[in-house]
């Protein structure tokens, strides 16, 4: 960060602003006035939205479940934490940390999607009152449901009794040209897409030392690795976005620790799906409707932001030291692609 005040402002933000692509939607601070300038009117709107908050993926939770089982085995066998560390033990021994649903929208996510449609109509109501959006979505259930609920919120604000029109569902099958879905570039899938994991883990390995030392001290004998810490941290947003109530597992880590971890995932995205991707190429978009509403996934949004040149003047992200937001153009995952981002 460029100065201590900027750092203090960031740390005062809630933890949920530092969960990278697992963050629930929130308005990003901006110096740009959202109001239409005097004497102007909106004649065209394009919204590109990520699906709303979802349950985690099954493989991710299987790994977390195995980790918790190992912790419980060690604790019940020979680990005897100090009384001051009992809270950590009680949290990890809880039986409700692993959700039983996978990948579909959570109740909180469904509300996010409806609220997004209402917010869109309110902001652009002079145009939206006389035009229905042309809607497109990839053929994944959580994305289609997000789009449908977004339209429900839009129609409720417009005064329609029920949703009035369908949408174009674009297949994600191999060989189909779909700009709302990744997987259309085999060269990228074989090479550049793998940069994310390696780049992020290099950062985690360097910056998890203090967290690992604390967790190993609180639960001696368990021996946490960097990947274990990341899985425990993931349980925080995973459980929080089910109903919007911050999970107790979030108490295991500080806001600054979440911020540092997010930066690791941010540089992973930057050098794989973002401006640091060597295969990125700007593209144009034909316009012949008044309102477009497209729905996709997180990685695709990062690639589109980059193709639009939104970060062309920003400083490339450092892989060893945190690049200040003022110099990176605000390139951080919880601001670019939280659940329901648009």
TrEMBL record:
<dbReference type="Pfam" id="PF00328">
    <property type="entry name" value="His_Phos_2"/>
</dbReference>
<dbReference type="InterPro" id="IPR029033">
    <property type="entry name" value="His_PPase_superfam"/>
</dbReference>
<dbReference type="InterPro" id="IPR000560">
    <property type="entry name" value="His_Pase_clade-2"/>
</dbReference>
<protein>
    <submittedName>
        <fullName>Histidine acid phosphatase</fullName>
    </submittedName>
</protein>
<keyword id="KW-0378">Hydrolase</keyword>
<dbReference type="GO" id="GO:0003993">
    <property type="term" value="F:acid phosphatase activity"/>
</dbReference>
């Amino acid at each position: 960060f460029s100065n201590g005040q900027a750092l203090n402002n960031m740390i005062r933000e809630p933890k949920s602003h530092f969960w990278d692509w697992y963050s629930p939607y929130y308005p990003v601070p901006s110096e740009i006035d959202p109001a239409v300038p005097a004497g102007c009117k909106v004649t065209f709107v394009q919204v590109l939205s990520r699906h709303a908050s979802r349950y985690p993926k099954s493989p991710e939770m299987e790994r977390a479940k195995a980790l918790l089982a190992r912790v419980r085995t060690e604790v019940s066998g020979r680990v005897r934490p100090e009384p001051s560390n009992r809270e950590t033990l009680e949290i990890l021994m809880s039986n409700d940390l692993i959700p039983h649903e996978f990948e579909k929208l959570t109740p909180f996510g469904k509300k996010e999607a409806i609220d997004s449609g209402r917010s869109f109509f309110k902001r652009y109501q002079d145009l939206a009152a006389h035009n229905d959006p042309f809607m497109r979505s990839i053929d994944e259930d959580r994305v289609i449901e997000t789009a449908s609920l977004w339209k429900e919120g839009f129609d409720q604000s417009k005064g329609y009794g029920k949703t009035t029109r369908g949408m174009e569902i674009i297949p994600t099958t191999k060989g189909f040209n779909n700009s709302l879905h990744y997987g259309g570039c085999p060269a990228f899938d074989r090479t550049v897409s793998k940069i994310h994991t390696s780049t992020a883990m290099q950062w985690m390995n360097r910056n998890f030392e203090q967290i690992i030392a604390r967790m190993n001290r609180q639960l001696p004998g368990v021996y946490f690795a960097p990947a274990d810490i990341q899985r425990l941290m993931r349980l925080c947003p995973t459980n929080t976005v089910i109903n919007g109530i911050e999970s107790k597992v979030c108490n295991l880590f500080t806001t600054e620790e979440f911020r540092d971890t997010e930066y690791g995932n941010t540089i992973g995205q930057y050098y794989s799906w973002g401006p640091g991707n060597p295969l990125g190429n700007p593209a144009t978009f034909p316009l012949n409707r008044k309102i477009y509403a497209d729905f996709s996934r997180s990685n695709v949004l990062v690639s589109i932001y980059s193709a639009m040149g939104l970060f062309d003047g920003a400083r490339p992200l450092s892989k060893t030291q945190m690049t200040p937001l003022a110099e990176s153009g605000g390139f951080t995952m919880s601001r670019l692609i939280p659940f329901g981002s648009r």
